[in-house]
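Each record in this resource describes a single protein on a pair of labelled lines. An example record follows, reproduced without changes.
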Amino acid sequence: MAEFTSTFEQGIPVIKYSGSITTLMQAPMPGFKELIQSGYTKIILDASSVSYINSQGLSSIINTHRYCHKTNVHMVMTGVKPDVMKIIRVARANLFIPIFDDVKTALKEIQYSSGTAIQSKSRETIIIVQRNIPLTVDLEAVLHEAHQSQNYDFVTKTDLNDALEYLNENDGQLVIIEVNYEPKDVEDFVAGLSMSPRHSMIPILVASPKSRYERAFEFILDGVNDYLPHPFDEFETPTRIRNLLELYYISKSGSSESHMSGLRLSRSRRGR
């Protein structure tokens, strides 16, 4: 069984595990419960000395993260070695567990995302185009469960042309389209958005149940950036949204074709 030590960095507990994590441990893993009961709301799991994990070890980490989430504790991981990261990515656990290069980087992120800065920053606007699925209600509920609803404002439209007109007059950072629209109408919407100097880089998601994946894939072929499974998941959905928004900001800051991100290059081709 892996060993662990607990230290504190800038008042935030850091639990460092060493060796191999190959045992299914009851959540939370050793070292966490005492800190949570003591009132700490931010915990860093330093995995820089973990050489190997198997499925049981990963389940222990995932279950501990879920335990922390349900008790309003912000848990992140740092220093994950490449071989360990492969296991985490296969299980897609990196979609909902924040992972940083080192403790120093994690400390900055925890202090920013949980401190006063996040309360005072401007909310990001998500434009939702829905017809038969209550996307706005469902998304608000999931983001509330993930303690991220305070970061976003929602604008709901039922017509793609109305959404495009709204974006011609207002700012927005993300568009989510329900799968129950005609692919040709979605293609026209994407083309119209691509022609806007201000909004040509806004990422677009298609929200769809798995049963309609083929139609969602048509949307992606027509220029939509990614697929968002519905019903929404309180761990996966906020992470997908956050990752696409980060890509959006990188794309906006790109200054040359040779350094374009995939999103920026995709949008530049749509407008041709």
